[in-house]
Known about the structure:
- With about 230 residues, this protein is an alpha+beta fold.
- The protein has one domain.
- The protein contains 8 helices and 6 strands.
- Strands 1, 2, 3, 4, 5 and 6 form a 6-stranded antiparallel β-sheet that branches.
- The longest helix is centred in the N-terminal third of the chain and has 22 residues, at about 5-25.
- It is globular and about 45 Å long.
- About 45% of the residues are buried.
Amino acid sequence: MRGGSKTLFFALVALLLAVGLAACGGGGDSSTTTEASAQGQAEGKPNGAAKNREEGKSSSGEGHSGSSPSSGNASDFVPRHHSDSGGGSTQFTVKGGDNSVQEFGEEAGSSEFDAAAAVVHDFLDARAEGNWAAACTYMSKATIESFEKLAAQAKQGEGKSCGAILAALVSPAAKSAIKAEAEKADVGSLRVEGEQAFVIYTGVEGTVIAMPMANEGGDWKVASLAGAPLN
């Protein structure tokens, strides 16, 4: 695991474990936990972010301030255009390593790939800006509920919005790594099986990251606050 992503990963690891346990109902082997951490289905329907791009609302990225405050409204966030290299998950397999994510399900078609990649980029960009209200719009309901339960158990943030809870939970020390990841993210694969999916992308210094995804009403949603490094 390389420097930037290592800093981000450990800054958020407690939150990831909380979400993973809430979604999976407890521990288990790595493949079982991996398979349970994302929900999605290959229906071939474009999600909201993809529709925005099709309508030309974010094709150039113009008007993107890159400085929305953590207290900003979701409507303040303007999606940016990103180009991804694709190529499938084979490029990420590790000889003799754990390739459970890289070999999970089947490689998605181009429309599903574009839809999921758009959501991941928009989520990462909103997260990097500190616009947690916008970031929450790209997160699955189950993930949001997990953070709300976590806040309630800790007697902090109970009754607050998803954005307010995340703004309070994320360490300021992770901000630089979060921004770097959003800038470097290059999606290479979407692996889908039934109602589960993973977006695999390359981050800072070539770190390969898997982001669990959920499909809600035909729209892809991010199913974690941060992805897990695969190398």
